[in-house]
Write a structure and sequence with these properties.
elongated; 2 helices; about 110 residues; alpha+beta
Length: about 110
């Protein structure tokens, strides 16, 4: 799988990755892996990784840097988009349900009558 790092914490060696299949985010905890390098990923890095699902959560393993800072503006663009979407647009028109006259007087037989 290939994805873009949206958030990372180099000291804890954790990251959140937006996956190419546009599915759920993948979580990387390199403490789970044997991560050879002292360097860690930054937000915006494109990475390739193996993925598995554990307890309904996507976990990234064996991460490899594909392209450094290729999506550097992506985390900020997503934040801005989310803040714009936080303000509701015009509300949908809600139409109250009113039963039809014929539906009001319907007799449903009880189990003993059937």
């Amino acid at each position: 799988m290939i994805g873009v790092v949206l958030w990372s914490d180099a000291s804890d060696r954790k990251a959140v990755i937006w996956c190419e299949d546009q599915g759920d985010l993948a979580f990387l905890n390199s403490a789970d892996d044997v991560f050879q390098s002292d360097a860690f990923f930054d937000a915006g890095d494109v990475v390739q990784f193996d993925m598995e699902v554990q307890a309904s959560m996507r976990r990234a393993h064996n991460p490899r840097l594909v392209l450094e800072q290729a999506g550097a503006g992506l985390p900020d663009a997503l934040r801005q988009s989310a803040s714009r979407d936080a303000h509701p647009r015009a509300s949908a028109k809600i139409i109250a349900f009113e039963p039809r006259e014929a539906d009001v007087h319907v007799h449903y037989p009880q189990a003993s009558e059937a």
